[in-house]
TrEMBL record:
<comment type="function">
    <text>Catalyzes the synthesis of gamma-glutamylcysteine (gamma-GC). This compound is used as substrate for the biosynthesis of the low-molecular thiol compound ergothioneine.</text>
</comment>
<comment type="pathway">
    <text>Amino-acid biosynthesis; ergothioneine biosynthesis.</text>
</comment>
<dbReference type="GO" id="GO:0005524">
    <property type="term" value="F:ATP binding"/>
</dbReference>
<dbReference type="InterPro" id="IPR014746">
    <property type="entry name" value="Gln_synth/guanido_kin_cat_dom"/>
</dbReference>
<dbReference type="GO" id="GO:0006750">
    <property type="term" value="P:glutathione biosynthetic process"/>
</dbReference>
<dbReference type="GO" id="GO:0052699">
    <property type="term" value="P:ergothioneine biosynthetic process"/>
</dbReference>
<keyword id="KW-0067">ATP-binding</keyword>
<dbReference type="InterPro" id="IPR017809">
    <property type="entry name" value="EgtA_Actinobacteria"/>
</dbReference>
<keyword id="KW-0547">Nucleotide-binding</keyword>
<keyword id="KW-0436">Ligase</keyword>
<comment type="similarity">
    <text>Belongs to the glutamate--cysteine ligase type 2 family. EgtA subfamily.</text>
</comment>
<dbReference type="GO" id="GO:0004357">
    <property type="term" value="F:glutamate-cysteine ligase activity"/>
</dbReference>
<dbReference type="Pfam" id="PF04107">
    <property type="entry name" value="GCS2"/>
</dbReference>
<dbReference type="InterPro" id="IPR035434">
    <property type="entry name" value="GCL_bact_plant"/>
</dbReference>
<dbReference type="InterPro" id="IPR006336">
    <property type="entry name" value="GCS2"/>
</dbReference>
<protein>
    <recommendedName>
        <fullName>Glutamate--cysteine ligase EgtA</fullName>
        <ecNumber>6.3.2.2</ecNumber>
    </recommendedName>
</protein>
Length: 412
């Protein structure tokens, strides 16, 4: 029988920090993997126009039962997300997501809508089609803080491949959190698939990462990890500004700078009351560092990528965390690159250090890949040896076919 968590009023920052710490990491052996894949939706007869909210849902209602039991949701700009349940191992997670994504892609294409797995929308201007109160409040909050245009790009023009991994045993928590974050720039370079935005070249290989870097660092920057990762995450969360307060009408945006710790210690009142544990739990969902603890580790820095790229990228990042030998190689390879987010976004594998680290990482991962992924990993190794990422393939397609056709065919 399901149980409902008790909602308690928080009276000080220490209580809030303890609440966060209790749910930051879970004692669990590594191996379980969850994947989430986002894809832009493109009207084949009118690729410059966003698919309407009603049409997205009408087509979703016709999707047959997915064999991998992925959940279907929609992002603010109309991108569709498949969220797979946790699987016992990485191959099970990849094969299940691949099967579900093939069915979803086929169903939408039969309805005249292509799915484009790229880190950014290369064609259309930012526009929100999701009417949800969360996203309206998010837009208001970011706008008041001076991030309005960038936030709209983030919400409506980006798509990612998210990998969810176990925290490990308590003795592993800090090292796994730190390594997951340190490999981020290298993986951002390897997965870069977003050289265009709103019809223009941006001069960057990973425009999605560039967008995230321009957003509020108090909410989106990497976590500074100290000796106790739970305390580090709690400190980050309490210093981050409150985005919204939910109410019976949906949500009210907070348009002044109010760190959660200021609300909980009584320095500032929101909605005329003290915060509750429910408010704090929701606040944690509005924080977007590259790696976010949620009892497991959410790795949020991979661009969405086409079908011939994403399985190998997913396996590589999982191997870098979960396979001891690959983890050792990864830690050594990326050691000087843990803060190289800007370089990764701008030039990707054209940076010699990122290229060298990427080659070592994919080579080590390829050596331990299951037979079912041999072809995928061989493709990735070859491309990385050439210094290429999905962005390079996409630009080649734009040059040959034009951006509209390249966009509508970006999953295949």
């Amino acid at each position: 029988m399901a149980t409902t968590a008790t909602v308690e009023t928080l009276s000080n920052a220490d209580e809030a920090a303890e609440h966060i710490a209790r749910q930051s990491f879970a004692d669990a052996h590594v191996g379980t993997v969850g994947l989430e894949l986002e894809s832009h939706t493109v009207e084949l007869t009118a690729p410059h126009r966003r698919v309407t909210w009603r049409r997205l849902h009408d087509v979703a209602d016709t999707v047959p039962d997915l064999p991998g039991s992925s959940a279907i949701t929609f992002e603010p700009g109309g991108a569709v997300e498949l969220s797979g349940p946790p699987r016992a191992d990485v191959w099970s997670a990849i094969s299940s997501m691949r099967a579900d994504h093939e069915i979803l892609t086929s169903t939408y294409r039969d309805a005249g809508i292509a799915l484009a797995s790229l880190g950014t929308d290369p064609l259309r201007a930012p526009e929100r089609v999701n009417p949800g109160a969360r996203y309206a409040a998010m837009a208001s909050h970011f706008g008041a803080a001076g991030y309005g245009e960038t936030a709209l790009q983030m919400m409506t023009c980006t798509a990612s491949l998210q990998v969810n991994l176990q925290s490990g045993t308590p003795r592993q928590w800090r090292d796994r959190f730190a390594l997951a974050q340190r490999i981020g720039p290298t993986m951002a370079a390897l997965s870069a698939s977003s050289p265009m935005l709103a019809g223009r070249r941006t001069g960057r290989q990973n425009t999605r990462q560039w967008i995230w870097e321009k957003l509020d660092p108090r909410r989106c920057a990497p976590v500074e990890i100290g000796s106790d990762p739970s305390e580090s995450w709690a400190r980050y969360a309490l210093r981050a500004p409150v985005m919204l307060v939910r109410n019976k009408d949906g949500a009210e945006a907070v348009v002044t700078h109010v760190p959660f710790e200021s609300w909980v210690d009584g320095s500032v009142q929101l909605a005329g009351r003290a915060p509750t544990t429910e408010d704090l739990d929701y606040h944690l969902t509005t924080l977007f560092p590259p790696v976010r603890p949620r009892r497991w580790l959410e790795l949020r820095y991979l661009d969405a990528a086409p079908d011939w790229w994403w399985p190998a990228l997913a396996f590589t990042v999982v191997a870098a965390l979960d396979h001891p030998q690959v983890a050792d190689i990864a830690a050594e390879a990326v050691e000087p690159l843990g803060d190289a987010w800007e370089v990764a976004a701008r030039v990707g594998l054209a940076d010699p250090a990122l290229h060298a680290a990427g080659r070592r990482l994919v080579s080590a991962a390829s050596a331990v890949a299951p037979p079912e992924l041999a072809a995928d990993m061989a493709f990735l190794v070859e491309r990385v040896e050439q210094g290429r990422c999905p962005a390079d393939d996409f630009i080649d397609n734009v040059t040959e076919y034009g951006v509209e056709q390249a966009f509508s065919g970006a999953t295949q």
